[in-house]
């Protein structure tokens, strides 16, 4: 077996092992870790996956994903919550059927995502980045300023109103965990499938050579718009799950800090591989939680109120050591092994070899 | 060792160490028999960051006073405490939440404290929207008990009102009771504009002023709400009527942003005229005492159920100040942040003693429905909770006064408004909307204390009424 083949098998084994551990997690870890770390990591992982999908296969680093997640969450929250005695106090409180609201929220978000994507589809590089950041800022200020749909106070009770097939996730948090796990697997498979389709391959061509692809007759703007729409769909799933998990939504869940947080997750995990999304999310939440619990409040007076700085330094170290994040580190380890074992064993067809030398 | 090798090994080592630490964290934190796990929820970031130590000081001082604890460090409350027992159980202070006034972070911190660190009781939060989020959380977690620290939004104990949530101080509206009548009568205001941050505490704060000022016949001509994200207030003060178009302004910008907002006003319309400005407690508190308050000597402002610089000459007030001052000599025990967290903690100790250390519903049943806090005068100094576990509390409108030392200011109590209830005599209610940008409307209405606010002179409540 070649070293590359061994790497693939190792990754598959690790993937299956991780999935088995994930399925067994409710019996392995405490309720807090399951609910607040793992469930949240899976949800943010899905959000980061939408970012990595656009970045790794479309060459578009989007800062709009948090805003899109927020749009989905806010849409759902406003549609499902109700005005009842002792109930919620903010938002439209439309009281729609939760299933209808779920579908409507996702469709609305994808429609907005397509619109965003159409506007940004002809922008590249820093201009694309800034444009997508603007989307998130618009979304943040919109929900904050229009008090009818929430304002800066929280819209609460979203987790109480779930479709029948989702069940009671407010009290049964294991159920919510498994729903996020299934959704994560779905998103992973979806992305892996999409990038192998003709659409996915042409998208990767556009990522590498947009001008050449346009001259070959591909509609670059449409491909990029559709990719953004798919990214919006994935982000919408994350946004809905986040609303269910958090139970309450306020603009800060889609503000600048949250945007940077999602970007940091993607960068830590690695912007080149979709698996990095979940790896980055777990690493991010793990580090922030551990550091937070070590402020003086918990009786361990070692860091003080400066834990944000400590967290920042840890992330900085990861990125400096491995610009491609943790997945990059993994790839690097295999590259190092390959170097020690001699040149890579790549089997090429004679015609390809001729093409390379010509 | 090759450079490439350490670049691989270093992060792997960091991750391995982290994983080891995390493994211990992944295990459930369980309480021990014979202990009550208590958490403090306050802010250490944002406009209320100063509250971290002050609030903690209030809690630890009260545990020291009533439960036999001792501060670990008299200069640094967040260093924790030693000992402490109530209801036969050891009090274990498991953590302090670090919020930034946003509901999202408050909720995350609440979950960390109440679920990961498995606290039975939380003392806090500090800020209005945080309390809304935590009240909604409490509703779904009936076995946990929340005693609000010093948050002033109305919703937590009015519209949401979960049975496991208690507040032993007034909300933002209650704190402003009497202020509208005072500026109406003493300064002759008939029209006023409101400017405040766009979230639940300033809305509640404004609701109290509107009820009071409009109730006696005043008119609010404009309400301007600013995003609570700080920044530049110039565009918002420009939306206010000009100084010659209105009798006065009520400032309800929260926390440390008051100074920035008033400075923007000065830049737009010139020097401040103290007779044309009023506002809630933040006209003086949170640093405003050294920035804008010196230019507002004579201005009337809402209170806090307490006062910054003391001065109420009652036996109960004096006893409180003497007792509370013992534990953290550098801290001002008249400060409402200290005072409110102190009272919340004192109530908890009483509740635990009543429940014999039981937590959950047992503690919730046993928490006192009356308290004798330092600055309560009415009912022989007894503060009562209403049916939604919200305090009915005396209020003291304040005036900014000059203090000894050049450029330094203080506050003095000008009025006494006894037994202010959260509904303002039916003006607000559980079935009515929570205060918002345009709610409540400005209507003339008789409030229970209208025409009965007593004059306070040199800390002594007189029989004269405000005219």
Kindly describe this structure:
The complex is a heterodimer of chains A (358) and B (467). Chain A has helices at residues 3-28, 31-58, 65-80, 98-120, 125-145, 173-194, 198-208, 210-215, 220-246, 256-269, 276-292, 307-321, 325-340, 350-357. Chain A has 358 residues and is an all-alpha fold. Chain A has one domain (3-344). Mean pLDDT of chain A is 87; it is low at 296-304 and 346-358. Chain B has a six-stranded mixed sheet with strand order 4-5-1-6-7-8, with helices on both faces. A six-stranded antiparallel sheet of chain B has the order 14-15-16-19-20-21. A four-stranded parallel sheet of chain B has the order 10-9-11-12, with helices on one face. In chain B, helix 2 (51-67) runs parallel beside helix 11 and helix 6 (179-186) crosses helix 7 (200-215). Chain B is of the alpha/beta class and 467 residues long. In chain B, strand 20 and strand 21 (460-465) form a beta hairpin. Chains A and B meet through helix 2, helix 5, helix 11, helix 12 and helix 13 of A and helix 1, strand 5, helix 3 and helix 4 of B.
How are the SSEs ordered, and which strands pair?
The complex is a heterodimer of chains A (about 350) and B (about 475).
Chain A: H1 3-28, H2 31-58, H3 65-80, H4 98-120, H5 125-145, H6 173-194, H7 198-208, H8 210-215, H9 220-246, H10 256-269, H11 276-292, H12 307-321, H13 325-340, H14 350-357
Chain B: H1 3-26, E1 35-43, H2 51-67, E2 70-71, E3 81-82, E4 85-86, E5 89-99, H3 103-116, E6 121-123, H4 128-140, E7 145-147, E8 165-166, H5 172-175, H6 179-186, E9 191-197, H7 200-215, E10 219-226, H8 234-237, E11 248-252, H9 257-269, E12 277-279, E13 300-301, H10 315-325, H11 336-355, H12 361-366, E14 370-371, H13 378-381, E15 383-385, E16 391-395, E17 398-402, E18 409-413, E19 415-420, E20 454-457, E21 460-465
Parallel strand pairs in B: 1-5, 1-6, 6-7, 7-8, 9-10, 9-11, 11-12
Antiparallel strand pairs in B: 2-3, 4-5, 13-17, 14-15, 15-16, 16-19, 17-18, 19-20, 20-21
Helix pairs in contact in B: 2-11, 3-4, 6-7
């Amino acid at each position: 077996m070649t070293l590359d083949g061994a790497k693939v098998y190792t990754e598959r084994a690790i993937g299956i092992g991780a999935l088995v551990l994930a399925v067994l997690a409710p019996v392995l870890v405490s309720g807090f870790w399951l609910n607040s770390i793992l469930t949240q990591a899976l949800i943010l992982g899905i959000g980061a996956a939408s970012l990595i999908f656009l970045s790794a296969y479309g060459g578009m680093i989007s800062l709009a994903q948090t805003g899109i997640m927020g749009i989905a969450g806010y849409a759902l929250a406003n549609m499902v919550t109700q005005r009842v005695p002792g109930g919620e106090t903010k938002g439209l409180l439309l009281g729609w059927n939760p299933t209808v609201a779920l579908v409507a929220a996702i469709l609305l978000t994808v429609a907005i995502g397509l619109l965003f994507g159409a506007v940004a589809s002809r922008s590249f590089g820093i201009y694309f980045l800034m444009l997508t950041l603007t989307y998130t800022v618009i979304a943040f200020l919109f929900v904050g300023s229009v008090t009818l749909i929430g304002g800066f106070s929280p819209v609460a009770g979203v987790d109480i109103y779930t479709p029948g097939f989702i069940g009671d996730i407010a009290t049964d948090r294991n159920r919510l965990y498994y729903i996020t796990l299934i959704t994560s697997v779905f998103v992973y498979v979806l992305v892996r499938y999409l990038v192998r389709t003709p659409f996915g391959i042409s998208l990767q061509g556009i990522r590498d050579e947009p001008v050449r692809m346009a001259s070959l007759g591909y509609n670059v703007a449409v491909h990029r718009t559709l990719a953004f729409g798919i990214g919006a769909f994935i982000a919408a799933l994350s946004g809905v799950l986040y609303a269910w998990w958090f139970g309450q939504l306020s603009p800060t869940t889609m503000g600048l800090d949250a945007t940077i947080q999602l970007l940091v997750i993607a960068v830590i995990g690695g912007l080149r591989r979709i698996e990095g999304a979940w790896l980055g999310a777990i690493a991010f939440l793990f580090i922030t939680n551990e550091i937070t619990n070590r402020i003086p409040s918990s009786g361990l007076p070692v860091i003080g109120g400066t834990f944000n700085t400590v967290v920042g330094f840890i992330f900085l170290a990861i990125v400096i050591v491995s610009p491609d994040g943790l997945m990059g580190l993994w790839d690097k380890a295999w590259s190092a092994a390959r170097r020690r074992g001699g040149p890579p064993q790549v089997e090429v067809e004679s015609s390809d070899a001729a093409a390379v030398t010509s | 060792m090759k450079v490439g090798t350490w670049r691989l090994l270093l992060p792997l080592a960091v991750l391995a160490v982290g994983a080891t630490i995390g493994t211990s964290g992944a295990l459930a934190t369980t309480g021990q028999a014979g202990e009550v796990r208590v958490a403090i929820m306050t802010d250490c970031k944002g406009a209320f960051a100063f509250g971290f130590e002050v609030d903690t000081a209030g809690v630890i001082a009260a545990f020291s006073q009533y439960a036999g604890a001792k501060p670990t460090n008299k200069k640094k409350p967040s260093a924790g405490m030693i000992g402490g027992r109530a209801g036969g159980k050891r009090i274990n202070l498991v953590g302090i939440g670090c919020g930034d006034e946003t509901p999202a972070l408050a909720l995350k911190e609440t979950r960390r404290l109440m679920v990961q660190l498995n606290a039975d009781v939380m003392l806090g939060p500090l800020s209005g929207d945080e309390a809304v989020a935590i009240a909604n959380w409490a509703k779904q977690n009936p076995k946990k008990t929340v005693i609000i620290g010093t948050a002033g939004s109305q919703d937590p104990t009015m519209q949401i009102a979960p049975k496991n949530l208690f507040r032993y101080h007034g909300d933002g509206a209650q704190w402003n009771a009497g202020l509208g009548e005072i500026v109406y009568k003493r300064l002759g205001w008939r029209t006023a504009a409101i400017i405040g941050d766009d979230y639940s505490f300033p809305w509640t704060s404004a609701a109290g002023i509107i009820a009071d000022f409009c109730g006696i016949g005043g008119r609010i001509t404009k309400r301007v709400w600013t995003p609570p994200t700080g920044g530049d207030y110039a565009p918002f003060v420009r939306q206010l009527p000009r100084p010659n178009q209105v009798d006065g302004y009520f400032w309800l910008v929260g926390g440390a942003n008051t100074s920035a907002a008033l400075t923007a006003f000065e830049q737009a319309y010139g020097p401040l005229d103290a007779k044309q400005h009023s506002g809630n407690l933040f006209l003086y508190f949170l640093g405003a005492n050294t920035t804008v308050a010196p230019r507002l000597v004579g201005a009337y402002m809402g209170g806090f159920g307490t006062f910054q610089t003391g001065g109420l000459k009652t036996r109960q007030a004096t006893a409180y100040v003497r007792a509370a001052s013992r534990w953290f000599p550098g801290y001002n025990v008249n400060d409402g942040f200290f005072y409110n967290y102190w009272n919340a903690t004192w109530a908890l100790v009483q509740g635990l003693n009543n429940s014999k250390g039981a937590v959950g519903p047992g503690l919730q049943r046993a928490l006192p429905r009356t308290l004798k806090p330092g600055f309560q005068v009415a009912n022989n100094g007894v503060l009562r909770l209403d049916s939604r576990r919200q305090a009915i509390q005396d209020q003291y409108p304040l005036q900014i006064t000059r203090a000894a030392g050049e450029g330094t200011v203080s506050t003095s109590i000008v009025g006494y408004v006894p037994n202010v209830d959260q509904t303002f005599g039916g003006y607000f209610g559980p079935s009515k909307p929570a205060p918002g940008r345009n709610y409540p409307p400005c209507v003339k209405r008789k409030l229970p204390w209208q025409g009965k606010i007593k004059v306070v002179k040199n800390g002594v409540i007189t029989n004269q009424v405000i005219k």
